[in-house]
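Reviewers asked in the last cycle whether our approach scales beyond single polypeptides. To address this, we selected a multi-component target totalling 768 residues and predicted its structure end to end. The input consisted of the following lines:
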Amino acid sequence: MTVIGWIQIFLYCAIVVALVKPLGWYMTRVFNGESTFLSPVLRPVEAGLYWIGGVDEKREQHWLTYAVAMLLFHVGGFLIIYGLMRLQALLPFNPQDQSAVAPDLSFNTAISFITNTNWQNYGGESTLSYLVQMLGLTHQNFLSAATGIALAVALIRGFSRSSMRTIGNFWVDVTRCTLYVLLPICVVYTLFLVWQGMPQTLGAYVDATTLEGAKQTIAVGPVASQVAIKMLGTNGGGFFNANAAHPFENPTALSNFVQMISIFALGAALTNVFGRMVGDQRQGWAILGVMGVLFLAGVAITYWAEANGTSTLSALGLTGGNMEGKEVRFGIVASSLFAVVTTAASCGAVNAMHDSFTALGGMIPLINMQLGEIIVGGVGAGLYGMLLFVVLAIFVAGLMVGRTPEYVGKKIEAREVKMAMLAILVLPLMYLGWTAVAVVFPPAVASMANAGPHGFTEVLYAFTSATGNNGSAFGGLTGNTFFYNLTLASSMFVGRFFMIVPAMAIAGSLAAKKSIPPSAGTLPTTGGLFVGLVVGVILIIGGLTFFPALALGPIVEHLAMNANNLF
Amino acid sequence: MFREIRPAIILLLLLTAITGLAYPLAMTAIAGVIFPKQAQGSLIEKDGKVIGSALIGQEFKEDKYFHGRLSATSAPDPADSSKTVSAPYNAANSGGSNLGPTSKALADRIKEDVDKLKAENPNASVPVDLVTTSASGLDPDISPEAALFQVPRVAKARKMPEERVRQLVTEHTQGRMAGLLGEVRVNVLALNLALDAAAAK
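The resulting structure, written as structure tokens, was:
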């Protein structure tokens, strides 16, 4: 670890924190339906969309209607992607003549993109036409992100409203998020990325003759426009197979730095939206504080582990850290930081190969995802995941002092706690359950690229990433098989919707309750005590759930590495 | 609930058209005007022919060129399309080795490469980036240590003074952005082009 490395890490944190208030202020205005500086241009477009779509923007929805609208929207998104992938050979914008994608891979990819996972069983430049990249993947990058934010805002309204039956209008929230938040940022962001060297062209791949006379086919495409929303919307599905490690998908140290900021920007700002909507910004800062503690702990461990390298390297006298699967322009620190950021949020873009990380360095991304990516989280998903843990922490605190727990003026009762537990328990059920199946099913075992405990970790990582809707991978695992295409798709589906629907139920039930003013017996939820309590609950619940699985994977691998056992 | 079906179809199609077609096509047009070179892939031409991209590494094997990092990219096997064969720096199929920290295959590979490099230049310690594969398989850069390590071999193959070659390396060493972000590095293709140009003089 170096001083300049830590300076980069703290500069990163400082910029993310500095963006929280302005972005939170702007997004609060957008979701409260107020006008913004972009309204003169965008308001006519917005009104036109509602008019054609038959949406009455004044009419709000009950939580069930809101959830049904969201599900219908996703069914349509699924059909668009699946159809485009199956038919891509017949459609335009296909200069490389990519053939139709197989049914199971198309199914997996369609589920992957509507759930904001963007797991890459497809190969990007070797599988997909430009049309699929744009009309299929880019569009769902926007809409699945907008959906996540809309859901988070709906849950916030549950906390901030009093005695109401409705939690907002899904169509309005998604449309406003897309038009006022995501699109304008992406337009500027795309141009920045092209300036840094990212291609943005519809032309065919370029054939070059290298200095030594060999032929090199260089894949290009409309990369920048997709990468902008891929990062901002914490989608993470790469244009290229190597994702953000590919020099065209992340050309410079600056593009890398800005990409990391854009992963966290909206998710972090949502804590401020929460604070503003419940009428006390300190509530938002307290939640961000919980996220910050967990995040910095993860960064420190991964950076330390990667800088130390492996026993294989040190036995040969090689210094400079574990550079296997990393790029020189990012080095140890920017690769380690990126890995923690991308899994703390539900992004899943990678700028280094996590499969080649040290055992402990690779364990932190795994833990981040197993906690449910609540550290900042995906756009929206992180905040509602975190609020579920807050509900539990408040409940635990209420039990300790023998009072009905309250949070931001709402009584937390049996229904909320049950729904929170349902959402929190369904995740380990998927990733532990499917991992257990996969490691005793010979065709699934054959997909592992590494032997020993590392192979087990590859499988555990895959199902964790899919369930958490992250999308990063221990890429050695051959995921494009019938078994993994279907089981991973089921993990992604359950991980997304079995979390969303209980969260919406909580929103509906909270919105219907009266707000009660704080009294002398109310636990203050803005101070260090509260932050410590939530961190404790997260680590205890998380630790009890997945520590046994970690012990079989990265922990035993670390011990084996120190004993010079190779597999 | 039935009244949600109309927006589910129509709004979805309209938003898809905006974000999936209008936005990327407009960005392609604008970027093509403002940053034409980058938008095409930062291609380098020599005598009217494309010889590569400034951002994409290419394979160098000859002694007279600086070598880049190891690349784990592959290509479909011409004999059997269900299999793949090693194809370093295949810029149409990026990827890493994905070998883990306790992989025997990785340990053997690194040991073999370290021995080879030690034989080539016994006087310097082997830089770690010369014996590890990059994440993309297309890393255009090496560390300055990795470039300096190769100076004796390149100078000998070109019959140039080592001092001159070392000077070219120094000239092509890029610092951190604003002295802060990223790592110090040398673009291998740019350095090799400069080397060819210097030799031609």
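The first strand of chain B starts at residue 43 and ends at 46. We regard this as preliminary and will revisit it once experimental data from Aim 1 are available.
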